[in-house]
From TrEMBL, chain A:
Its EC number is 2.1.1.64, 2.1.1.-, 2.1.1.114. Mg(2+) binds at E191, E194, H195. Residues 40-60 have a biased composition (Low complexity). This is Ubiquinone biosynthesis O-methyltransferase, mitochondrial. It comes from Corchorus olitorius. S-adenosyl-L-methionine binds at R93, G124, D145, L190. It catalyses: a 3,4-dihydroxy-5-(all-trans-polyprenyl)benzoate + S-adenosyl-L-methionine = a 4-hydroxy-3-methoxy-5-(all-trans-polyprenyl)benzoate + S-adenosyl-L-homocysteine + H(+); a 3-demethylubiquinone + S-adenosyl-L-methionine = a ubiquinone + S-adenosyl-L-homocysteine; a 3-demethylubiquinol + S-adenosyl-L-methionine = a ubiquinol + S-adenosyl-L-homocysteine + H(+). The lineage of its organism: Eukaryota, Viridiplantae, Streptophyta, Embryophyta, Tracheophyta. HAMAP family: UbiG. The gene is COQ3. SUPFAM superfamilies: S-adenosyl-L-methionine-dependent methyltransferases. GO terms for biological process: methylation. Component of a multi-subunit COQ enzyme complex. Its cofactor is Mg(2+). It is an enzyme of class 2 (transferase).
TrEMBL record, chain B:
The gene is COQ6. This is Ubiquinone biosynthesis monooxygenase COQ6, mitochondrial. It comes from Corchorus olitorius. SUPFAM superfamilies: FAD/NAD(P)-binding domain. Keywords: FAD, Flavoprotein, Membrane, Mitochondrion, Mitochondrion inner membrane, Monooxygenase, Oxidoreductase, Ubiquinone, Ubiquinone biosynthesis. It is an enzyme of class 1 (oxidoreductase).
């Protein structure tokens, strides 16, 4: 059993953590206060890279960003912890991914495991809170993150459930996988691009990971005044849901900018939606309002396909 | 996929002898090393997606509902109930006398039953639709008649014996090819450990180790069997063992009232639901099909023992008295209402406002034994915690005033299966509290509201005090003559609307 799982993992990150100080990552949430919080996305995930000109140097990551996420990595699976807004937003993001990918790949939306047979990579997977649901939906998932602690936590957590223990987690960057010529049917990178040093290069890497006929889903925060007010002022300073400095407003992209840099990376954005938070119900939902958080689905323009 | 299956079942075979120590947090470490243990603990229980404790109407409705949704029909379900009737299939014959235990199901419940494919079985058995309802009180100051036409509906509800509802759901469960297993026993203990990551990465696929990591709940039954489930549903009624084991507190009180229920026969067919508020509590006469009606009569415990033991003739006399001139005059509101204080509000008067007060058909025969049971109100402060969720009476026991209890339970079952389906759509672990809280957030306000309304009614009528009587009468007049209010009340009572007033 165990061996079959290990076989599927590249050997370089098979570190079985022997003495993780944080063996208990999750608290029991029996008593949750019904607090509703505003949104913001936090997310984060760390990392990722970009490789500037000097390809294959891991130093191209934003070091302070990595340190930031490393510090709170233990709390990834605490539903009431710093990543609570992400957990709350997760079903909404997955609903968008489910519907766009089912349509694109012609999968049955009424199947409990519609992604059966699809190779999906979660770039900037953090503690695995997106990777695990994708695996339950049937996908063959690879989760990568530049923060090694995140990967350890993600792997420990995924191993608790047979349906998620098949996830391949690697502490690496999109660029390195491009160098290894890995290809995926769907490349997903949520709430990551605002944390990378060079979004244009990052998008090119994402594009290179997409196999023929594949698709990508990217989400981020808009560089709008409303986003500034909700994601930074409210979430980080007033409500302190997020550690201060989680987001830098100047590194946010507008939907137009994202569409443009994806286009330059040969990705055609086909669909875009916004997330809105209803503070009364405490739930997120998809909407046309892309002024704060938005998610985009795109397909790779592929000349060779038409030949 | 194949690999996952192999993983799930393979280790069960080879890892049978791992005893489990309750509530020790470092079980993971211990369990993989110690092999000793009681012999009866050596067999590892089967693993399910959902374990429903309580195979009553609400529990079976949840099983049917899960089995009929595309995203949840693959779920492996265990039903735990010691009721021997669950093992066999039996339709109730139409010529049996009606059982006094009946439910008034609302149009919302009927459409839920249709969705899950169970109404076709009810259709073949005895049930009685009614499209009119008359409510009045003993002071003679007011009455209200509801008619399905007022809310543009065909029926206000349907009275069905509980055993008919149960056997219909059971037939449905048996007829669809679902992965169900019924355990004919009672729940003894339930344990859920906190999530923990273990360093023993390779021990994760057996049920025992999933349990020690907090990924499965373990249930032990009185007959020595044990099983594991991702989600435990407490559908085990007002004295829920699941609720007790999960440590959910409840809020509630006992009314110092009992209800007497029985089946009676008329000389003519009855197609209307009747309810009259008497000084000690309401008496309801519900059509149950043919010339039979069901009586639910609320009174204080001392009276109830008298009424239960008196001769049949005396009892029938008392019933007819209570439904006619007993305790006070007939309302004469058609005169008062037309010219009264509400005339400026009338606008378009609903059709039945023109209907006059009627006297219910006389009861001529007792057709079942009389049963008495105490009334209480109880509400669980929480409906869910990790891997545990309560539905139906386990979450809320209400005053049976409007026959709403089981409808609230069916609403719970419908919502819970919907929430589970939504969770599966986005790849969520179905035992995760964050998912289950959605169910609680949806149902709690609806249930609390209905309980408050029913409790308020009960309280308003348990006091005989002049000014209050007039207020009540005014409320009746209001309900009778203000169309939007009346339509709202009907929609609310039909289970289709969440708030009782002007929404």
């Amino acid at each position: 059993m165990a061996s079959s799982k290990l076989l599927s993992q590249p050997r370089w990150f098979r570190f079985l953590p022997r003495n993780l100080s944080n063996a208990r990552l999750f608290s029991e949430l029996a008593s949750q206060p019904p607090v509703s919080e505003p949104q913001n996305n936090i997310e984060s995930k760390s990392n990722n890279n970009f490789s500037s000109k000097a390809s294959s140097t891991p130093s191209s990551l934003k070091e302070p960003e990595l340190a930031k996420f490393s510090a709170i990595a233990d709390t990834w699976w605490d539903y009431e912890g710093p990543f609570k807004p992400l957990h709350k937003m997760n079903p909404t993001r997955l609903a968008f991914i489910r519907s766009t990918l089912c349509r694109h790949f012609g999968k049955d939306p009424l199947s409990p495991r519609p992604f059966e047979g699809l190779r999906v990579i979660d770039v900037g997977c953090g503690g695995g809170i997106l990777s695990e649901p994708l695996a339950r939906m049937g996908a063959t998932v690879t989760g990568i993150d530049a923060v090694e602690k995140n990967i350890k936590i993600a792997r420990l957590h995924a191993n608790l459930d047979p349906t998620t223990s098949t996830i391949e987690y690697c502490c690496t960057t999109a660029e390195k996988l491009v160098d290894e010529q890995r290809k995926f049917d769907a490349v997903i990178s949520l709430e990551v691009i605002e944390h990378v040093a060079n979004p244009a290069e990052f998008c090119k890497s994402l594009s290179s990971l997409i196999d023929h006929g594949g698709a990508t889903v990217v989400s981020t925060i808009n560089r709008s005044m409303r986003a500034y007010a909700t994601a930074i002022v409210a979430a980080e300073y007033l409500l302190q849901w997020l550690p201060k400095g989680t987001h830098q407003w100047s590194s946010f992209l507008t939907p137009e900018e994202l569409t443009m840099i994806l286009k330059r990376a040969s990705i055609d954005v086909k669909e875009m939606a916004g997330f809105v938070f209803n503070p009364i119900s405490g739930r997120w939902s998809l909407s046309d309002d892309i002024s704060v958080n938005f998610i985009a689905f795109g397909t790779k323009e592929n000349e060779s396909e038409t030949v | 996929m194949n690999r996952i299956v192999a993983r799930k079942f393979g280790p069960n075979v080879c890892r049978l002898r791992i005893p489990w120590r309750p509530f020790s947090t470092d079980v993971a470490a211990k369990s993989s090393t110690s092999n000793a243990g009681n012999p009866e603990q050596e067999t590892e229980g089967e693993q399910y997606d959902v374990a429903i404790v309580g195979g009553g109407m609400v529990g079976l409705a949840l099983a049917c509902s899960l089995a009929s949704r595309p995203l949840t029909k693959h779920l492996n379900i265990a039903i735990i109930d010691s009721n021997p009737a669950l093992g066999r299939k039996h339709l109730i014959k139409k010529d049996d006398l009606p059982d006094p235990r009946v439910s008034t199901v609302t149009p919302a419940t009927i459409s839920f039953f249709r969705d899950i494919g169970a109404w076709q079985y009810v259709d073949k058995q005895r049930h009685a639709y009614f499209d009119k309802m008359q409510v009045w009180d003993y002071t003679g100051l007011g009455f209200t008649k509801y008619n399905a036409r007022d809310a543009n509906k065909e029926v206000l509800g349907c009275v069905v014996e509980n055993k008919v509802l149960l056997s219909s759901l059971l037939s449905r469960v048996q007829d669809i090819d679902v992965q169900n297993k019924i355990y004919p026993s009672r729940l003894n203990s339930m344990s859920i450990l906190p999530n923990s990551s273990s360093l023993e990465v390779d021990s994760t696929s057996s049920a025992t180790s999933l349990f020690t990591h907090g990924r499965l709940a373990k249930l032990e039954l009185e007959d020595g069997n044990s099983l594991y489930a991702k989600l435990v549903v407490g559908a085990d009624g007002g004295k829920s063992r699941v609720r007790e084991l999960a440590g959910f507190r409840t809020t509630g009180w006992n009314y110092s009232q009992n209800a007497i229920i029985c089946t009676v026969e008329h000389a003519i067919e009855n197609h209307c639901a009747w309810q009259r508020f008497l000084p000690a509590g309401p008496i309801a006469l519900l059509p149950i099909g043919d010339k039979f009606s069901n009586i639910v009569w609320t009174m204080n415990p001392k009276e109830s023992s008298e009424f239960k033991s008196m001769s049949e003739d005396d009892f029938l006399k008392a019933v007819n008295h209570a439904l006619d001139y007993g305790y006070g005059p007939h309302p004469k509101s058609s005169v008062m209402g037309n010219a009264g204080i509400f005339s400026w509000l009338k606008g378009n008067i609903t059709v039945s406002a023109k209907d006059c007060f009627e006297v219910p058909p006389k009861v001529v025969k007792l057709a079942s034994e009389r049963m008495a049971f105490p009334l209480s109100l109880r509400h669980a402060n929480d409906y869910t915690s990790k891997r545990v969720v309560l539905i139906g009476d386990a979450a809320h026991t209400v005053h049976p005033l409007a026959g709403q209890g089981v409808n609230l339970g069916f609403g719970d079952a419908s919502t819970l299966s919907n929430v589970i389906s939504e969770g599966i759509a986005v790849g969520t672990d179905i035992g995760e509290v964050s998912l289950l809280k959605k169910y609680e957030a949806d149902r709690k306000p609806a249930n609390v509201m209905m309980m408050a309304v029913l409790d308020g009614f009960q309280k308003a009528y348990s006091v005989d005090f002049g000014p209050l009587n007039i207020l009540r009468a005014a409320a009746f007049h209001g309900a009778q003559y203000i169309s939007p209010l009346k339509t709202s009340i009907i929609s609310y009572a039909s289970g289709e609307q969440r708030l009782p007033l002007f929404s």
